[in-house]
Each structure stands twice: as structure tokens, then as C-alpha cells.
Design goal:
The protein has 332 residues and is of the alpha+beta class. It is built from eleven helices and eight strands. It has a domain of 195 residues: 3-Layer(aba) Sandwich (Beta-lactamase). α2 packs across α6 and α4 crosses α5.
Length: 332
């Protein structure tokens, strides 16, 4: 499908990219985010049947407006990383190396402590493990020490009986799934993702960013706390010390705080380099679109099968549904 060059000039920088016929409206809405909704810098990409039909980017990569957001600019994508981590696990399942219905302890024996001995791998993937947060204090920089985080998870008691409901594993998801992947494959989560997904698909997507990629990273702007709905049950619970919600908001080894220079700790090179499989991935719109394009076309892309049809069907099936997520206190 032919694609036409597209560009627009805004008060927050130049926008540009490529748009296939019939998809100009996507680019127009992208532009409106800059003109009317205070967007500073961003990228969007869309694929259909494995072919890119929208790939646009622009604005600035820093709050001062000194550096333009260019074609290969990347940023932290937070929980979009969970999709990448889950994809890795399902690749192993599709290959027959991982049984989703097996006990976690079949692959990771040390996990079977403090009420976790009956937890299955599928419970980890569907946020049913009960390990929504870690309750022991995480030392400064703890999120960047894989072995430390695994040892804390092994000792952690579930916040509910595994399998009885679901509670969002906001930060623990990456270590829970990533350690199972490491035990089976012998590779770290970031290495497995690069070798089996990002590199063959051609996605500029990293879980553990190499130093030589750091220069392409945009900085993030902290959200205005005044915009949060503090009346929501999640925030109400988060104000009470030692609740699941309090630990999710506060027990991060300063990852969610600012360092001595005023830079958000999650936006430092040390944080980018760490393999935080729940919320530490670095990519852009194109990288996300490329990763998901393989699943959107049935699991096989450009002659390479990532997951088989049975695995893909299971990936899309509802595993747990309830009136309220145990951790987020909202329906999920």
C-alpha cells in the first residue's frame, strides 16, 4: 500500500511521518493533541495485516523544547511492557517448554513459600497470584537489582489466596513472569525478549536499554498530582499506611521519586538499563505496533511463527473477571 509523506507545524514543534490513503484522519487527530490538548512529544503507528499504514511522530523530547522528537525517539512506556513480558512467556508455552497450568514451583522451586505453593503459572499471567505488592521495605535502587527482587518475592506472603480473585501486579508482574522465563530459557527477560521478539520483528523495543541507545530517549513529565481523583477508593486506601495501595504507591526503592538533581528516578540511565518487566520498557509507537503485528496476523509474521493458534486463542481468553480488582479497587 502506498504511503504519502505527512507533516504539520505546531507551536510545540514539527510533526511528520507517513500515512496510507484512508488513514489521514489518524494523523489529524494526532495533530489535534498538540494544538488543543497540550501534547509535547509523541509517536503513533498502526499496522494492518502486518503492513504499516500510519507512522507519525513529532514535537519535543524534553520539557524545555531544546530537542525535537525525531523518528527514532523512544521513551518509557510503563505498563505496555507487561504485554511484551507476557508475549515472551507465551512463546515458551507455544514451544511446549512452559505449561501454563503447571505450578510455578515446578520451574522455580523457591517460590513455594508462605502460602504460594499452589500457585500456577497462569495465575501469574492473569494477576491472580496475590503478589500485588511487596510489603518488606525495598532499599533505594532495589528495583534495579534482579536477584534482590526475586528473593523478596520468594519470601512474600500473598495478599489473597492465589486463584480466588485478581489484583493488579503493578510492578511485581515483570519479576514473577521474568523469573519463570529465566529459569526455563537460561536468559534474562530482556535478553529473551530481544532475541525472540524485538530483533526478529525489527522492533526498536528494549527491556533493559543499552547505553548506546540512551541518547534517543525522551524525558517524561511528571503528572500534576492535582489532576488525580483523590476521592477514588484506590487513593483513599493509598493514604492509609501498610495497605496494598500504599505499598504500590510508596514502596519502590525511590524508583517513583526524584533524585538529588530533581530528575525522576524512573527516567535515569540506571532505571532504563534495569530489566523491569512490568513497567520499564523503552520504545515508541512503531516498536509497539511491530511487536503486536505478529499477534494481529495470527502469530506468524514474515515466515516466522511466534505463537501457534492454540496459544494465541488462550492469550485472548478471559482468565479472571470480577466486580472489583483487589489492588486497583475498580472493575477489571
Amino acid at each position: 500500500m502506498p504511503k504519502a509523506n505527512w507533516s504539520a507545524e505546531t507551536t510545540t514543534g514539527q510533526l511528520e511521518g507517513f500515512v496510507a490513503p484512508g488513514f489521514t484522519r489518524v494523523a489529524e487527530v494526532f495533530e489535534q493533541n498538540f494544538r488543543h490538548h497540550s501534547e509535547l512529544g509523541a509517536s503513533v503507528a498502526v499496522t494492518i495485516d502486518g503492513e504499516t499504514v500510519v507512522d507519525v511522530w513529532g514535537g519535543y523530547a524534553d520539557i524545555s523544547g531544546l530537542y525535537p522528537w525525531e523518528r527514532n525517539t523512544k521513551s518509557l512506556v510503563w505498563s505496555c511492557t507487561k504485554g511484551a513480558t507476557a508475549f515472551c512467556a507465551h512463546i515458551l508455552a507455544s514451544r511446549g517448554e512452559l505449561n501454563l497450568d503447571a505450578l510455578v514451583s515446578d520451574y522455580w522451586p523457591e517460590y513455594a513459600q508462605n502460602g504460594k505453593h499452589n500457585t500456577t503459572v497462569s495465575m501469574l499471567l492473569s494477576h491472580q497470584s496475590g503478589i500485588c505488592v511487596l510489603t518488606n521495605p525495598i532499599p533505594d535502587g532495589g528495583f534495579y537489582d534482579w536477584d534482590l527482587m526475586i528473593s523478596l518475592i520468594e519470601k512474600q506472603q500473598p495478599q489473597f489466596e492465589p486463584g480466588t480473585t485478581h489484583g493488579y501486579q503493578g510492578m511485581t508482574f515483570g519479576w514473577l513472569i521474568g523469573e519463570v522465563i529465566r529459569r526455563i530459557s537460561g536468559k534474562s527477560l530482556g535478553t529473551f525478549f530481544h532475541d525472540n521478539i524485538a530483533k526478529p520483528i525489527g522492533a526498536d523495543f528494549w527491556i533493559g536499554l543499552p547505553e548506546d541507545e540512551e541518547s534517543d530517549c525522551a524525558s517524561l513529565i511528571q503528572p500534576d498530582p492535582a489532576g488525580a481523583d483523590l476521592s477514588h477508593p484506590f487513593f483513599q486506601a493509598g493514604m492509609q499506611e501498610d495497605t496494598v495501595q500504599w505499598h504500590l504507591l510508596n514502596n519502590s526503592g525511590r524508583h517513583m521519586s526524584a533524585n538529588e538533581n530533581g530528575t525522576a528516578c524512573f527516567d535515569t540511565q540506571e532505571a532504563h538499563r534495569a530489566e523491569i518487566g512490568a513497567a520499564g520498557g523503552i520504545t515508541n509507537g512503531r516498536g509497539l505496533a511491530k511487536m503486536y503485528s505478529a499477534l494481529a496476523v495470527g502469530g506468524t509474521l514474515n515466515g516466522r511463527t511466534y505463537v501457534n493458534a492454540d496459544t494465541l486463542a488462550r492469550m485472548g481468553a478471559v482468565a479472571s473477571a470480577s466486580g472489583r480488582d483487589f489492588a486497583l479497587k475498580r472493575p477489571t
